[in-house]
Amino acid sequence: MIVAGFGFRAGASVFSLCSAYQLAREGAPPVTHLATFADKADDLAELANLLFLPVIAVAPEQVVGLQTLTLSKSSLAARGVGSVAEACALAALRGREARLLAPRRISQDRMATCAIAQDIAQGASQ
């Protein structure tokens, strides 16, 4: 399982989400799922439909204590994590051994971020 986690501001367009996604997946294996906080999961529907990928809705308690590669002051203030995108990607893989492939990437308009996490067991078999 390879998950693209997203963090984004209210009003982020599908262009913003796609921009962050394209930057994050450079050099990454094919993504199998998208993830974001449950209260924003519906906002990923258009991108999910374009990519033919399911969305995993992450509950806020699922990210408690997760270590992220990035430390964003705005993410800490809003959601209590260093990077919403990184935390959501990791949380979607809870119960599995997971790792981030790289720090989160920011869309060109700075409205969205995306990070890719991979199930380590899956990565070893590729």
UniProtKB/TrEMBL annotation:
Keywords: Methyltransferase, Transferase. It comes from Novosphingobium barchaimii LL02. Residues 2-117 form the CobE/GbiG C-terminal domain. GO terms for molecular function: methyltransferase activity. This is Precorrin methylase. One of its GO terms (biological process) is methylation.
